[in-house]
Amino acid sequence: MNQPKPSSAGSIALLIPAAGSSRRMGGEIKKEYRLLDGRPILIHSLLPFLATAAPKEIVITLPQGDRETVETLLNTHFPDHPKQLFPFLKKIRLIEGGTTRQDSVRLGLAAFTSIHDIILIHDGARPWISPEVIRRVIETTRLYGACIPVVPSTDAMKQIAPDGTITAHLSRAFTVGAQTPQGFHHAAITEAHRHAAEDGIEYIDDSEIYSRYIGPVHSVRGDQTNIKITFPSDLKEKKEHPPCE
């Protein structure tokens, strides 16, 4: 297999893991393919990056057998957008993901044809990402090598044992909720995922893998409206409580 070549200095690439089963969402249609305001959720999750980050390469991981479905979604819904977005269609590569999100990210990282300065990893079912959050993540990743957006914890945070017993009461002052996109130096997160595949541990997210094998991950302010769609109620809640303009 050909090794990826270095890309131009400062280049950005985008990886969208969307190979999950959407089991918790229920229904016959995978959540990323469901329509939201007339367009698939996956398209909503992708479009803000095209206008804000201008990625040189885009990889989307999919369940086995879904390539034709997603190609149709992309070709059907992109014509509604300005002509300057059309070239991005040629940059999108659709590949089969793994059995876990961690596997899918590793396979997605291996699918890039070039090594870029920054890789942004964003959930395919997180459609309300704002340009401001994307920019903050990019700027801080350039400075420190790794960055994720976070939001303050609003619930009382507890740590529990496998049997459901509470083992620790965590202070909200020291806990936050992690969001995406998570940004990393491309070569570093690729190396970290290679190690993670060998140690057999299932990590919480990509920032934990980076922390384990590379170094500290910085954080920036996220956005409370940047939720990940997991349950049907997430769509209902968003419609009832739209983001402030």
Describe what you observe in this structure.
The chain has a single domain (7-228), classed as Spore Coat Polysaccharide Biosynthesis Protein SpsA, Chain A. It has 8 helices and 14 strands. The protein is globular and about 50 Å long. The strands form 4 sheets. Strands 2, 5, 6, 8, 9, 12, 13 and 14 form an 8-stranded mixed beta sheet that branches. It has a two-stranded parallel sheet with strand order 1-7. A two-stranded antiparallel ribbon has the order 3-4. Residues 239-245 have low confidence and may be disordered. The N and C termini lie far apart (48 Å). The chain is an alpha/beta fold and 245 residues long. Helix 6 packs across helix 7 (206-213).
User: What do we call the CATH topology?
Assistant: Spore Coat Polysaccharide Biosynthesis Protein SpsA, Chain A
> Any idea what the radius of gyration is?
18 Å
* Main sheet summary: 8 strands, mixed
Average pLDDT number:
88
Strand content: 15-25%
Please work out how many helical segments DSSP would assign: 8
CATH uppermost class = Alpha Beta
Total separate domains = 1
The stretches of 5 or more residues where confidence is low (pLDDT under 50) are: 239-245
Category from helices, strands and their pairing:
alpha/beta
Identify the CATH homologous superfamily. Spore Coat Polysaccharide Biosynthesis Protein SpsA, Chain A
Summary keywords:
alpha/beta; globular; Spore Coat Polysaccharide Biosynthesis Protein SpsA, Chain A; 245 residues; 14 strands; disordered C terminus; eight-stranded mixed sheet
